[in-house]
Amino acid sequence: MKEERTFSIKQTATQTGISEDTIRYYEKIALLPRAERKDNGHRIYRQGDIDTIQLISCLKKTGMPLEEMRPFLTVSTDADPAEFPELVGLLRSHRENIVSQIASLQQVVDFIDMKLEQGRYRKSCSDETQDDASGSRGEESKSQSVSTIQMSYFPLSTGKSAGLNME
Q1: How many whole angstroms separate alpha carbon 67 and alpha carbon 90?
Q2: What is the pLDDT of residue 136?
Q3: Residue 167: its pLDDT value, please?
Q4: Are residues 111 and 153 in contact, defined by beta-carbon separation less than 8 angstroms?
Q5: Residues 80, 16: Cα–Cα separation, whole Å
Q6: How many other CB atoms are found less than 10 A from the CB of residue 13?
Q7: Among candidate residues 67, 70, 59, the one with its CA nearest the CA of residue 94
Q8: Cα separation values, 49 from 1, 72, 74, 96, 116, Å
Q9: pTM recorded for the entire structure
Q10: Alpha-carbon distance 45 to 18, whole Å?
Q11: Where do runs of H (alpha helix) occur along the chain?
Q12: CA-angle at 19, arms to 32 and 68, nearest 5°
């Protein structure tokens, strides 16, 4: 029988892109099981540990809080999702939140693009000279409509510095 390959914490950090300190932290808060130790006290990680760290990293990139990840980490990677309808529901809900965030961020990007095309930062989006400003550069520009919601990202009448208002 072939012995399973083991990895040091440094090798694990390199493979996962997660720092050694973060790996230790995940162990401390029991997001990862305590690593086995060699006789000299150094941690030993297996491929399953690396897979779990990569899953944590992926879920973290989606904005999922560490505490909400716990149920997902207890399920085997080859498990049938139909056996865990509550986790499927949580993941669907989390996905909807991400899609909503993407839509909000896309509105901000569209607004910024429009302002960069116009070359003006303090005019109303309903300004009729909008087409003249973008067309005078000799470029074909995309016609973008901006809603009043988008305009609320950058207050026009306040003396305060502009900031994003995302809830």
Answers
A1: 13
A2: 43
A3: 40
A4: yes
A5: 25
A6: 19
A7: 59
A8: 21, 14, 12, 29, 47
A9: 0.61
A10: 14
A11: 9-16, 20-28, 47-61, 66-73, 85-118, 130-135, 148-151
A12: 40
| pLDDT for res 120 | 63
Q: Report how far residue 103's alpha carbon sits from residue 75's, in angstroms, rounded to the nearest whole number.
A: 31
By the 8 A CB rule, do 55 and 68 touch? no
Give the separation between CA 140 and CA 132, rounded to whole angstroms.
12
One-letter amino acid at 28 equals: K
The residue assigned the tokens 């995302």 is 166
Task: Enumerate the β-bridge partners of residue 43.
Answer: 37
167 Cβ contact partners less than 8 Å away, ≥ 6 residues apart = none
**Residue 95, CA distances (Å) to 35, 79, 90, 130 in order:** 31, 20, 9, 36
Structure tokens at 72: 């997902």
Largest CA distance in the chain: 77
Token couple for 34: 């305590």
CB distance 93 to 129 below 8 Å: no
List of residues 6+ apart from 141 with CB closer than 8 A:
117, 134, 135
Q: What span, in angstroms and rounded, lies between the C-alpha atoms of 150 and 165?
A: 10
Residues of the chain with pLDDT under 70: 1-2, 120-167
